[in-house]
Batch of 2 targets.
Target 1
Amino acid sequence: MPALPDILFYVFAALTLLCGVLVVANPLSRSPVTSAMFLVLTIISMSGLFVLLHAFFLGIVQIIVYAGAVMVLFLFVIMLLDLKEEARRKFKFFGIGAGLISFAAIVFIMLKSLKSAAPDANNPVGDGDTASLGKLLFTQYTLPFEVVSVLLLVAMVGVILLCKKKLE
Amino acid sequence: MHVGLEHYLTVSFLLFSLGLLGVILRRNLLVIYMSLELMLNSANLALVSFSRYNGKLDGQVLVFFIITVAAAEVAVGLALIVALYRKRQSAHVEDLTSMKL
């Protein structure tokens, strides 16, 4: 009888991968709204994986920032652009072939390298509680933290400039 | 079977390849952008699991920064897509070929 965290890992991993497939290639619908909704589900199940890895803070941040802010932005833009259902243009066999080959190649390379590296780390050691994460963030990583806040400001200014009626 | 580091890494690899497949296969600019988000998220998963199995929190701090940068990147990228749509009335990559030689 496997332990409960192991069962939960398999459940969340299967959910993540299934919803990821449905984001990329949904056989029933090709509208971007469906893809966005499945991306939300992917992100939520991935935050379940984060919690299983004892990264509680990041699990919550993942839900708030990605499923909350980023996906709302995506849906806003999709509704704003009023996209028609992606017309069933002729699929290019070149595209399908290139996509599947690169998919298989990347999976093969990564699994091969994982096998040769053979990480013997089967017992988790770290326990990422939020207090020590915050301590690390505000001592060792203070400069990157400030730089990232400047980056957010710059992005905000840039977006406002891009969305002005006339670009001089 | 006991779940270890390689299980999490396998999930991360598969998710990354799915994102790449979406970027190559899909023709809608917004769906391509969502696939890029998928790839970023798979990198986050790999970093968090490394951090968990190494006993160091630096990986989690890096994920925190990646999430912040991804949010900024999404805002700028979507603004670009909206500006492009205003000019061309299309968000389909096959209609945006003016840089093709």
Note: The radius of gyration of chain A is 21 Å.
Target 2
Amino acid sequence: MKPHVTRRGLLGLGVGAGGAVLLGACGDDGPNPIVGGGQNAQPASTAYTGPNVALTFWNGFTGGDGPVMKALVDRFNSENPNIKVTMNVYEWADYYQKVPAAVSTGNGPDLGIMHVEQVATNAARGVVLPLDDVAASLQLKEEDFSPPVWRAGVYNSKRYAIPLDVHPQGMFYNKAVLERAGLDPENPPKTNDDYLKALDALKGKGVQGHWATPFPFTGTHQFESLTWQFGGQLFDDQATKPLFAEGPGVQALTWLVDLVKNGYSPKNVAQDADLIALQNGKAAFNWNGIWTINTLRAVKGLNWGVTALPTIGTQPAAWAGSHNFVQFKQRATDQNKLQAGKVFINFISKQSVEWAKGGQVPARKEIREGAEFKGLKEQAAIGAQIDNLHFPPSVPGIPDAMVTIDTAVNEAILLRKEPGKALADAAAKASQILEQNRKKYGG
Amino acid sequence: MVAVKAAPGRGAGLTPYLFLAPYALLFVTFTLVPAGYGLWISLHDWDYLLPGKPFVGLDNYRALFSSSSPVFDFFWQSMQATGIFTVFSVPLLVVVPLGIALILNRSFRGRTAFRAVYFAPYVLGVAVIGVLWRFLLDPNLGAVNALLGAVGLPDATAWTTGLPWAWISLVGVTVWWTLGFNAVIYLAGLQDIPRELYDAARVDGAGRWAEFRQVTLPGLRPVLLFVVINTILASSNMFGQAYLITQGAPGVETRTAIMYIAEEGLRSYRMGSAAAMSYLLTLALLLISMITFRLFRTKD
């Protein structure tokens, strides 16, 4: 989320006023004309016995997760002398622009990681290969994972992604602040009533307990969690129309806006200020992604905890992202490389408890339910929400429609528009974008 | 006779072109051809990875002028944001650096140090200044509001999330960041004005103000034209500051044209539409540049 922008880069974009003009210059007709992925029919297996191969593996693990993945890659390399995997890391925002361009010029990596909501778009654009055979030969089934995350990797009835992890939202809390307000730091609120009572108690001590952030990380995530909690959905299953502006969505956004209106949150919370406030003892609660575990661990002397989101609506639910393995399309198919890549995916997937230590919930059920993962107290607390997670419909271009939600959440929490109006405006825009995408991707 | 007469002319005629050729080659390859290609893209529904890139004629342009299209509000909103930023930042970036250059052009102790100080922010990347100011300007936790509060001024100004504050922040940060560049250009221009002109003005009894108006400003005119045009173009291409400091908030109020074009083309992969927007922006900038040139010329 922190794109690297240099002045020269900006000048490049600016001169001639056309990023698109520049980018257009390096496009051609794509890697090959088969849309929706080419052939990847080699039966996969769990071992590779062919000649030595070198694989490139790109991802966006720029944070504390990078070294963890690097260590796993190193271990794979030493255990598989005939496969050499080289890992390259880019900022995610750069990565999603770089990878398709690299694939289209025949310089794409062999393997990569993608967020679940990006899979359908990249499948439709012919960037990634179908992985049904990987799933089949590794005998991976829906039951081995969590159904929503497993299903989210399917586009046009083909599987393009093997889930590595899920990273849900959890409720982080500052125990010292709770104690100061006379609340039990070992028993944070679980229901709407308890939550509002706690916020009242905190307010009595001059603490604004839940800073409502108007920005996507993690204001939009909180809105999405709440919409599902109130029984709503963001889109219908086929993403033919937005549903986030209906009753549950309005309830969800109103709840967040009321935090500001009732003085449980300051106005004008800026990016990351909510999390900083938790660390400074200016806030008691922060609903944030599981990656926050690493951030808070690094803060000396902070007494904090994390648990599942409280159930504000009628049912438990939480936002989550998910990292998935993908294989990229190449100009010339090399069966040895494809095979070796599958061995790699299987290896890392099986080691995902190591990966979880870096602040993730393993997608694989056997690992999630293993004693070792349960021993990771914080991760396991957030991981307990696994059955209550939701992912956007697996439809190409869905991220384009989802950004309209960011705008609505921003406008409402900054008190510039009523929640209902902000969501209705966004939904009108999202409908147009969905229709545009249907035309573009043929849906 | 004829051949002898023409020969020196032709011989000299080829040399300049040979010298120009390397640049011309680069210009054609990296500017002219991509620009032409961009025009071609703007006439299609263009995603470089999809095999079908249907020709749509002027549809991408038409959409920018049709209020029922999905891009209409967003595009004009972003053009308006760019306009607001340009209108408020350009005068400041033209005038303030001039004042600073005038002061730094006089001789006093520590002049070199001050020159370095004013230029220093310009060497920082936009990512650095963006993140730096995002934290300083944080409405609830930032140092700026804390300092204002400490001296008894309002301490809850929404510098990055409210209006007009977000614009004041973006313009202020940009002026702080880039004024050194314009100041250095002015300084070079000031040092090119012959000293004799000032001596002559003084002999004629001119005061400080008359000196500035009759000698300094006319002497700086070519530099001024460069500074004005360059600043207008730089301001209309503003991207990084808004991207990092306000993220376009509140709503999409501070999302600039370049930000929106980049989103449309590079994130939503609608490159035809983004190219059309780029061309419209280019056209607007051409027009403004031409008007500026004309204004400077009529003063002749």
Note: The CA atoms of residues 63 and 69 of chain B lie 5 Å apart.
